Amino acid sequence: MNDRWGGSPQADSLLQHQGTASAEIARPLVKPESFSRLPAVPEPTVVKRSIPHTNGRREFMLQKDSLFVMQRDGWYHVISEDYSYKSEPYYMILQHELEDKPVRPSSRSVLDAYVVPCCLERAKRAGIPVCEWGISQAYVPLPALLYGLNYFATSADFFVVDDNEQAKDVIKHITNKGKYPFCYQKLSEHATVHSCTAIFGHTVKSCEAIAGSAKKCYDLFALPLVKMVFVQTDSTSDTNVALSSLAPVRYNHLTDEERALLARYLEPREAR
Predict the structure, then answer these.
(1) 177 and 90 in one domain?
(2) Got the DSSP string for 24-87?
(3) pLDDT in tens, 169-228
(4) Which end of the chain has less neighbouring CB within 10 Å, N or C?
(5) Do you find a cis peptide bond into 105, omega within 30 degrees of 0?
(6) How many CA atoms lie within 13 A of 8 on its CB side?
(7) For the segment 81-108, what is each residue's pLDDT rounded down to a tens digit?
């Protein structure tokens, strides 16, 4: 797990209310323990890739903006750094849906996963521990974790604020001077924020609680590559962790172990 604070701006329209009640969105179209070894990966039947380069050691070259479509177990899996609305991966998913091809993730899942309130409400209903959240345009309890909700917002950016002056500056930034709402998550006094990367529901280094949440999030959203942000409410226990958000992750931010795991999914075995 990587400890770090981050930063914020994604929902077209959200009904304003607080607590863990559901949020509606006006959609467009639609301490850590290392695993002793990587999880077993089933062999894909077909792999299409936009940049089919390998280096001298026959490792997969994950270049920026590479888009992969892989067929396994009767599903087409779209693998990308980002699935944001109107992105190439998003339209690739829509194309498969329009052609009535079974595809993961779905267009609905990628829209919901990157809008923090929608993500947390769906996760909560699926039995995943999540942070309590609220939507506001000014008020925020302190300390708190903040995410923007405007059209250009990304869940990859978040802020931790613990005093009024800091909160005022951050809110001004993520709301574009009060034009848009934001999402807040109240933090307890000793809470810490952690992030990790999940690849097809597997994490390379994580505690048992986060590994379990990663598997459940994949079952729910089917995002093959995703950054997961968690809040640990009690530093003395690995079990008190709650999902804060799901976010895009760049290939160049992957560790060597994570790149190796993703490459095992992407690269087919040599024909015998």
Answers:
(1) no
(2) -B--S----EE-SSPPP-PPPSEEEESS--B-TT--B---TT--EEEEETTEEEEE-S---TTS
(3) 999 999 999 999 999 999 998 899 999 999 999 999 888 899 999 999 999 999 999 999
(4) C
(5) yes
(6) 28
(7) 999 888 999 999 999 999 999 999 999 9
The position carrying tokens 């530093």 is 235
> What is the mean predicted confidence (pLDDT) over 57-65?
67
Tokens standing for 175? 């709301």
CA 63 from centroid of its chain's CA atoms: 20
Query: With contact defined as beta carbons under 8 Å apart, do 48 and 192 qualify?
Result: no
Residue ending a domain, among 162, 186, 210, is 186
Q: Token digits for 123?
A: 């996760």
Q: Write down the residue that tokens 């959240």 correspond to.
A: 133
Q: How far apart are CA 65 and CA 139, in angstroms?
A: 38
Residue 127 lies in a domain: no
pTM: 0.76
Q: Is residue 53 one of the residues assigned to a domain? A: yes
- How many Å separate Cα 230 from the centre of its chain? 11
Helix (H) or strand (E) holding 243: strand 241-247
What is the distance between the alpha carbons of residues 146 and 181, in angstroms, rounded to a whole number?
A: 11
Range of the domain at 246: 40-116+190-266
Q: Identify which of 171, 164, 222 has the alpha carbon closest to the alpha carbon of residue 198.
A: 222
